[in-house]
Specification:
heterodimer, A: 619 residues, alpha+beta, Immunoglobulin-like, seven-stranded mixed beta sheet, five-stranded antiparallel beta sheet, 9 helices, 35% strand, rod-shaped, B: 265 residues, Serine Threonine Protein Phosphatase 5, Tetratricopeptide repeat, SH3 type barrels, 3 domains, two-stranded antiparallel ribbon
Chain lengths: 619, 265
Amino acid sequence: MRETFYRFFGVLLVGILTSSSLVVAQTTNVDESVSAKSIGTEETVTYTINVSGSDGTDLEVPTAPVAEGLTLIQSLPSTQRSVSIVNGQMSQSFSFSWIYRPTREGNATIAATSVKVGNKEFHTAPLTVTVVPQAQRPPPRRQVDPFSSLFGNTVDQTPEPPQAPNDTDIFIRAIPTARSAYQGEQVIIEYQLFFREGIQLRQSRLTDSWDAEGFWREELDVETRPIPRIVVENGLRYNSIVLKRAAVFPTRAGKMSVDPLKIESEAMLPFGNRDPFQSMFSLRNRFSQVQLASPRVSIDARPLPADAPPSFNGAVGKYAMTVTTDRTNIKVGESIQLSITIAGRGNLATLSSPTFVVPNSFDLYDPEVSSIIDRSGREIVGSKTFRYVLIPRSNGSFEIPPIEFSHFDTDSNTYKTSKTDITPITVSGTATTPDVVVATTNGMPVDDFAPLFTSSSEWKKANPGSLHDAYWVYLLLFFPSVILVMTVVVKRRRDKFTQNVSWARGRRAHPLSKKHLKQATSLLASGNVSGYYEELERAVLGFIGNRLDVAERGLTREKLDGMLAANGVDLELRNRLRKLLDACDMGRFAPSSVTPENMESALDEASSIIPDVDEQTAP
Amino acid sequence: MNVMRNVGSLFLLLLAVITPSNSAAFQSETNPMSLENAVRSFDEGTVHLLDGNFLAAIQQYSQADEAGWVSAELYYNMGLAYHRSNKFGLAVLYLEKAKRLAPEDVKIVHSLSVASHRQADRFSQLPDPFWQKTHLWLANRLPFAVAFWIGLAFWIGLVGLIIGKLLFQLHGDWWRRARILLGSVSFCLIFYALTTSAWPPIEERAVVLTPEAKIHELADESSTEVLIIHEGLVITVKTSSADWAFIEVSNGSKGWVSSAVLGTI
């Protein structure tokens, strides 16, 4: 019997291996799982080793792992080959299963084993199974006689209630690409449904609208008819499918959360009603309603760095800008199409056009915006194009200044700026004007500047200066006032000379005496002795007469002496005056007795007496 | 005779003092370019402008401007050249300068109207107070320099009449009335000339030269932004320094803006 089984198993394995020539080379992966993590003392557990990525030609059948607390029911594994074709690519996997029965209560361990694929040996990890008393396990299902109902045996015909799966049998997992991101940065959240092998699902649908407040949301494509992927989680084998994949972009900074994804479905566990006829005719009863929800996803949105360049307008991601014009040589009135394309990954929907200026002679129209967004990958990528139409209204050589676009690069976490070159535009010809009004009523062009001036006649100095802070202005204003004041002073002086004789003589005393002394000096040089002394006497007596306001002619020496004494002239000065006057008399009437030394000393004495008299007679 | 000699000496002294200051006030300080050269630069600039060589035209026009010789036509052509060179703010600046010299020229008024349609800002205009309108009306018809010279002549005449009264006995009602008339008119004219020079009826205005300028509450970049204004807007400058200018927009909004973004008209 055993030899027959070995032969059958060998033929089966060869058949499996020979049919695998079309399998695409894949990375070999080995995982291990058990059918249940907790069993009763009277139940069994299936241990499975799954080998994927191998075409089977170099796969050796592994040996059953040693178990502690469990006993192997059969030493040869049951083998299964799975083939799947996804996107035209075939993959296959092989699984080897053994059944164990518990020998005692408590934790039982299935030890590690190895699988040899070609020259490589893969090692499995040990798995632990908890063995509990059978009384703690759900009651065993009834063994129903399939034919009893046909023969009228109506004992206990009530249908068995469907068994509902628990949280470990089926659940949704939300997997974000990042828990922390910059404001505006793309974060992908993938929702995967995990359900145990053998569980069948139907009528699955979203129960609530999925929302993500504080985020801009973009849906990514997922398979509408997904093929479950087998994964091992905590030693249990699950089927996994992607329910939803979405890109979210935080629109503000701070901690925010994305709502759970909730679905409602009908699930059937692999152990349904054992009655095949009842199972066949009442499938509905075997499915139970399940409501599932993913955990809430929290994302910490950080504000963008503060050193944003001036041309930054909120673009976050990884972009490149290209600018093209359909032509650069045109005629007046024709149009140029200027296209700005920004391509890359990020939130293309909210991307705005870079600002730029065009020559004033150009009319610029609102852009036509088109986007190409690829949602088939694992993130939002694509391009956005802004097509502007420019129409020149005058000829000449113009330049479209550089167009600048800045974005926050999420790879390097820095602002990056791209800038185009200057685009020269040459416009020729003149505006065609047959159908439009080109001039205003006063002959000026419509919506354009007036023509230039070809000549200029009224030139003036720029900035001639202000009047109020020029000092010469005040000098000019002050000058007439000075003349007026001088006139008043002169007139008063003149009036005083005519009206006050005493004051007038006093004012004239010095000039007259100087005049006479000067005359005397010239006479001295000429040798006219009598004339010389006459002038000396006239200078001294004239000065005293003017100073004291008396007529000097006919003034006796005694009277003169008395007047001088009365006006405070001391005796010494009076004696010096008398001697001088005597010398003058001598010189005038006996000139031969006078020596030149006498004459010079008389001149000195006269020059000395006049200021002394002036000092002592001063009021 | 002595009196006349003294007055003559004083007059000569006054002329000696005034002559250098007068020439300094009315002549260019640095560039000795003559009017003939300025006119030649204007003509060469016009040839460039007709040929579409806007930058060369601006260079030629700027030579005349920097030399201190200006005209409404020069400023207008400069504004047109800047307009064709896609420098909107500078175009408005020179058009406004041209308008200041020829306020009623049809070409200048029309081109400024076209420029205003392209200006991004739309602010209402507060009415000017009546006294400011009157002052402006008067200043346009009687320049303060003319008023000053007439006032000075009347003032000299008044002094002459007073001297005549003092020295030559020019008494009588007619002489008295003449003195009162000359005194009143000269005072009014000189007062008008000096006050108009110190406080012109049109406040200092400027044009925004950058695509965008932020008006702040205080003269500090970090202070609250009051308003954002755009290239080509004409604003009134209340006071200014090298870095900041306190300005008023036509609707009465006031604030501080960087002096570097303004071009004074």
